[in-house]
Amino acid sequence: MELNRRQALTLALAATALAALPRDLFAASASLDDAIAAFTGGAEIGEGGVTLTAPEIAENGNTVPVEVVAPGAEAIIILAAGNPNPDVATFHFGPLAASQFASTRIRLAETQDVIAIAKMTDGTFQQASQEVKVTIGGCGG
Amino acid sequence: MAENVKPRVRVPGTASAGEAVTIKTLISHPMESGQRKDKDGNVIPRSIINRFVVDFNDQNVMDVTIEPAVSTNPFFEFEAVVPESGTFTFTWYDDDGSVYTESKDIEVS
């Protein structure tokens, strides 16, 4: 088979794109791992003690309503795995918090997993995650 | 520099002792993320509210660390216990050093 100029260029572009892709993915997950480690100190994370409520589809990534509830938590962190900076917000609950519940609105750059990790008063960690499909990204690029 | 920053807080006026009340807060603020660029391609510097604290009669209810991924006009809803009549104080800390405060009285009947 003989390649003409157009096919050769397409191939070269595809190869470059493939080579670039895994590195970007790796960079994003590394900063997410860093953000999780900064909160948990590397402790093991269980499932089920925290409830994350977010829409399945967010038409506007600039304001996505999310709710977290984790009975018995002293702090809850919200992370967005696909944002340039995965940290979103950390809630620390004081003695007068009636429940470990908080609701806010966040920005999502693209379709991605939103993660909530709760630090329980006994020192253990619980997490929940949900994928949110984003129609229009919220990072203004 | 954020301009026209205006906090809005909704707290019920009365409650019974020990009751959990729902509080909603919103503060008008652009929350410039530091990711956006202007039309000449220069990055617009980050300018956000980075911390939000709620106290009731000097006891802490909630302390939130805020990152740029929180939307423009940051909104928070949460629940607080009201042991006696008193005052909720809400404090927002801006990147530029400004501190915005708001307080609401609640009466326990």
Keywords for this entry:
heterodimer, A: 141 residues, six-stranded mixed beta sheet, B: 109 residues, mainly beta, Immunoglobulin-like, five-stranded mixed beta sheet, 0% helix
The largest sheet of chain B, given as strand count, sense and whether it forms a barrel, is: 5 strands, mixed
Taking the sheet with the most strands of chain A, its summary is: 6 strands, mixed
Q: Supply the helix-strand structural class of chain B.
A: mainly beta
Number of separate domains of chain B: 1
The CATH class assignment of chain B is Mainly Beta
Tally of strands of chain B: 8
Radius of gyration of chain B: 16 Å
Provide the low-confidence segments of chain A as ranges: none
- Count of DSSP E strands of chain A? 9
CATH superfamily membership of chain B = Immunoglobulins
> Could you spell the SSE succession of chain A in H and E letters?
HEEEEEEEEE
Can you describe what's shown?
The complex is a heterodimer of chains A (141) and B (109). Chain A has 141 residues and is α+β, with helices and mostly antiparallel strands. In chain A, the strands form 2 sheets. In chain A, strands 1, 3, 5, 6, 8 and 9 form a 6-stranded mixed β-sheet that branches. Chain A has a 3-stranded antiparallel β-sheet with strand order 2-4-7, with no helix packed on it. The radius of gyration of chain A is 19 Å and the shape is elongated. By secondary structure, chain B is an all-beta fold. Chain B contains no helices and 8 strands. In chain B, the strands form 2 sheets. In chain B, strands 2-8-7-4-5 form a 5-stranded mixed β-sheet, with no helix packed on it. Chain B has a 3-stranded antiparallel β-sheet with strand order 1-3-6, with no helix packed on it. In chain B, a hairpin with a 2-residue loop joins β4 and β5. Chain B is elongated and about 60 Å long. The model of chain B has no long low-confidence stretch (mean pLDDT 92). β7 of chain A pairs antiparallel with β6 of chain B.
